[in-house]
Amino acid sequence: MMDTNLFPYEIVSIEGQRYEGEASLINLKLSDGEIGIMKDHLPLVGIIAISHLTCIKNKEQKIFAISGGILNVTKKKVSILADAFEAKEEIDVNRAEQSK
Known about the structure:
ATP synthase F1 subunit epsilon, ATPsynth_dsu/esu_N, 8 strands, 1 helix, eight-stranded mixed sheet, transport, membrane, single chain, CF(1)
């Protein structure tokens, strides 16, 4: 059965890295607090804080580390222009520790 609560989203970095998917809920931290976005959310533009981004689809979570950016919510999709982002499973812990 198709989940009718899904909406498309894309994450694009300044360097051109791209990830696209569908979600029923996206949670992230903006400069003025946390936000949860679901299908048919009102249009919105916001500044993303350095944090993590969680995309939920069919009870499965896709988590990204995100180093700030711009959130754009429209009736058709959610677009995130990130300074940089990385999926949780792709994070190299040793490299991250060295970059501190």
